[in-house]
Predict the 3D structure of the following.
Amino acid sequence: MLASQSLVTPRVTMPHVWSEAQLLHEPAGEVWVGVRIPGTEVPERAAAIRDALDAAGAPRHEPLAVGPQALETVHDPDLIGYLESAWRDWVESGYLVEPGQDRVVPYVFALPGVAAPGRIPAAVSARAGAFAFDTMTLIGPGTFQAAVAAASCAHTAARLVVDGADAAYAGCRPPGHHAGRRFFGGSCYLNNAALAADAVTAGGARVAVIDIDAHHGNGTQEIFYERSDVLYASVHVDPGAGWFPHFAGFADEVGTGAGVGTNLNVPLAPGAADQEWLAAVAEVVAAVAEWNADRIVVSLGVDAAGEDPESPLDVTGDGYAAAGALVGSLGMGTVFVQEGGYRLDTLGELVVRALEGFERERGRP
Ligand code: SP5
Ligand code: ZN
């Protein structure tokens, strides 16, 4: 064997779809209760996951750029157009100088009753409020390019699975599951997992999105709420106990219209650890099997880990490996899409543990 080849058996063999362009998004903090604080969704997150997967032997794939047509399967063209132009308009309007704001931040919000549906303000200062649901999801010079790169990773991973791969992992960053058809927030701009899910419905497949990020994926839920061919099932910290995204993620949200019965929320109490968390993941996996899904998209956030700065759950590396195995037991083509996870010292290894658990259950094809 050549010296340059690894002597270590790969721990992860599925393709890892990754683009360096995802590092171009520098949120430079977040505005929380009106105060600019250091952000948690930093480029170092993505680099840490990339490096852990490289070390685990996962083969890297470059994504194919996703175009507007694919993005418009899950997003309103107005949101895409806004995100594309927001930074340039902000600069041209002079806000970098007066009042001296170096990121796009909303100051008014288009709540029902305040704004007619679809209204986009003339003032650039007000425009963000037509689409943003929080003040923490800032837009800078590289944000749109990085968000499109992340979406491209998800879409390419989905294509690999449609073309017959057993599984693929998309190292998406910025994350996506809080972005809805016409809104963004929660550090998310474009919904990577929803894009992957829509792509794997190819050929009429029934698709289940299993969301194990610590937070409820309110954007993914909203996008598929009326669809009968996509089941959204999520395990997350209870918004009723005071946790982000605050307004959605409750157990009584079951879908609407044709989508009734295709939305499942399993909220957990703050402090829940492996035992309760895995019981909830097992409940969701059983529901997915019962529903007769053909393909799976996993919104893989690792922020449910103990001591993650953004969540009060207490899941271990063994817990993530067991969750990966539970998903693997479904025996279906699976697209993993990265969501949150903010402990820079552990998040790469947690992702590896989840994927390794999945592949071990599958007998490493
Ligand atoms: C993708 C993802 O995991 N998004 C979750 C973002 C959750 N952000 C919630 C922020 C709540 C306020 N945190 C302020 C911490 C101050 N110490
Ligand atoms: Zn999260």
Q: What stands out?
A: Strands lie at 16-17, 30-32, 35-37, 60-61, 167-170, 207-211, 230-237, 263-268, 295-300, 333-338. Residues 32, 37, 136, 175, 178, 186-188, 213, 215, 244, 301, 303, 310, 339-340 surround SP5 (ligand 1) (CB under 6 Å).
